[in-house]
Design goal:
The structure is a single chain. By secondary structure, this protein is an alpha+beta fold. The chain has a single domain (3-100, 156-324, 364-472), classed as Up-down Bundle (Outer membrane efflux proteins (OEP)). Helices cover 64% and strands 12% of the residues. It has helices at residues 3-20, 26-33, 55-58, 62-74, 76-98, 119-125, 157-223, 229-263, 291-297, 299-320, 365-432, 438-472, and strands at 43-44, 102-112, 128-130, 133-134, 139-152, 286-287, 325-336, 349-358. The strands form 3 sheets. The protein has a 4-stranded antiparallel beta sheet with strand order 2-5-7-8, with no helix packed on it. A two-stranded parallel sheet has the order 1-6. It has a two-stranded antiparallel ribbon with strand order 3-4. Strand 3 (128-130) and strand 4 form a beta hairpin. The longest helix is centred in the C-terminal third of the chain and has 68 residues, at 365-432. Residues 1-43 have low confidence and may be disordered.
Length: 478
């Protein structure tokens, strides 16, 4: 080995020492300088629930607020839900109209020729319209007037049907609120996941630069006969692995951005966000309140309750079909066999009034089937209500546990990342004093990198737990 090679090795060792002994990347330094997590972070038990907190107060990031506002204006699923509300509102108007008499204007014209040897024909032949003027043949029929029909709601069938429609209308409003809550939660969760991916990408790029420098060092060591081809291949493989991870994360970022764009109802475009200091962010504390508030704030529970009430009313409507129905019809107007006679009053004035009381007696199988169907739907609605309440309760319990566990996970991951970051510097010092080989330095650097990536993921899981708990409590639609 000549003096030039020795000088090269000395320079490379200095470079390696500067790499291993350098400060951790910015995202990692946030781990060390990050403020202490408040002890009251996560779930708080109080009589006040965070579900009543408006979403603009719960989410304070201005970029996230702007995204949510856009989603509330353009989201297609929300627009579909609003049309369902319109449909339910029109159904209420229809049911309300059935309670009132229907009045229609009627104009009619016709002609009739009856047989001579019938009672009507014989009567017409022997009748004079005026002295010396026989009944015309064929006989015309011209009329105009008002016709009214009304079903008297003696068994509250129509009123119960209207009330059921109102309940379903209110249910669609609660359904819209549930869609709002889910939409806001999904936008927020996707936003925090996007920030997490941004930080993972930054860490990966920093790690790639370190690996490139390390690879150059190993190549020169091989040239100076202080390294082997195996070490070079090992570092080349590590670099290729990191580079493949970079593009995998870039793809995830693209998909997450487009998922947010889909929620916002727009075509692909960059999502504005501030990715710096992600690890220093502390999720908002969530107050769960008391169980009865869950029933009062969850839109899906209120919707299921309204559907159950509507199903009960449907049973009453189906039962009323077995009872007699009273229909009243009336008409008033002008009628004559010749248009010119319509203005001759009072002779051309006609009116009628009739009432029908009818009840099903034979072959009531269709009515029975409808009643049985309504009864089955009522039971089904009851089970769906119970299922919704149970699911809501379990959602809250799961997210409360997730917040607590993710807080502990983050604490341990933070400790792991800090320890491994310090180990990188120690490994570099040991290598410079020939007490550690370069492979140990490589493994230490890789472990530190993995720990930092997992720390970022743990922070994203914390935000996910808080956002999902806020949604589970019924927050987000106000």
């Amino acid at each position: 080995m000549n003096k030039t090679d020795i000088k090269k090795i000395g320079v490379l060792l200095a470079v390696a020492g500067s790499i291993w002994g350098c400060k951790a990347p910015q995202a990692a330094s946030n781990v060390e300088n990050r403020p202490e997590v408040p002890q009251n972070f996560g779930v708080e038990t109080d009589t006040v629930t965070s579900a009543i907190v408006p979403w603009k107060q719960f989410f304070t990031d201005p970029n996230l607020v702007a995204l949510i506002e856009t989603a509330l204006k353009n989201n297609q699923e929300l627009m579909i839900t609003l049309q369902e509300i319109e449909i339910a509102k029109n159904e209420v108007m229809y049911k309300n109209g059935k309670l009132k008499p229907s009045v229609s204007a009627k104009l009619g014209a016709g002609v009739e020729k009856v047989g001579r040897y019938t009672s009507a024909g014989a009567g017409d032949a022997s009748t004079d319209i005026e002295p010396g003027k026989e009944m015309p043949e064929p006989l015309g029929d011209f009329s105009g007037g008002l016709v009214a029909n009304w079903e008297v709601d003696i068994w509250k069938k129509l009123r119960n049907s209207k009330e059921a429609a109102i309940k379903r209308y209110l249910g669609t409003v609660e359904g819209k609120n549930f869609v709002l809550s889910g939409l806001i939660a999904e936008v927020a969760d996707s936003y925090y996941e996007l920030l997490s991916l941004d930080n993972q990408l930054d860490l990966t790029l920093q790690y790639i630069e370190l690996q490139k420098h390390a690879l150059e060092v190993v190549k020169i060591q091989k040239q100076a006969a202080r390294g082997t081809e195996l070490a070079v291949k090992k570092f080349e493989a590590e670099l290729a692995k990191s580079q493949s991870l970079e593009f995998s994360i870039r793809q995830q970022i693209t998909e997450k951005e487009n998922r947010i764009n889909a929620l916002l109802g727009r075509y692909p475009e960059p999502v504005i966000r501030n990715k710096t200091a992600f690890l220093t962010l502390v999720p908002a504390a969530v107050q769960t309140g008391i169980p009865s508030q869950l029933l009062a704030n969850r839109p899906d529970i209120k919707q299921a309750e309204l559907e159950l009430e509507a199903a009960k009313l449907d049973v009453k409507v189906a039962r009323a079909e077995f009872y007699p129905s009273l229909d009243i019809s009336a008409a008033i107007g002008l009628q004559a066999f010749k248009p010119s006679y319509l203005v001759k009053m009072p002779e051309s004035i006609m009116y009628s009034l009739a009432g029908d009381l009818a009840a099903p007696l034979i072959n009531r199988s269709a009515i029975k089937a409808e009643f049985n169907t309504a009864n089955a739907r009522q039971i089904q609605a009851l089970y769906e209500y119970d299922q919704t309440v149970l699911s809501a309760y379990l959602d809250v319990v799961n997210q409360m546990a997730k917040i607590e566990n993710m807080q502990k996970v983050y604490g341990f991951k933070e400790k792991e990342a800090t320890t491994l970051t310090e180990s990188v510097g120690i490994a570099g010092e040991l290598f410079k004093s020939s007490r550690a080989d370069y492979l140990e330095v490589l493994m230490t650097q890789r472990d530190a990198m993995d720990a930092k990536l997992e720390l970022v993921e743990a922070k994203a899981h914390q935000f996910n737990a808080v956002v999902m708990l806020y949604k589970s409590l019924g927050g987000g639609w106000k």
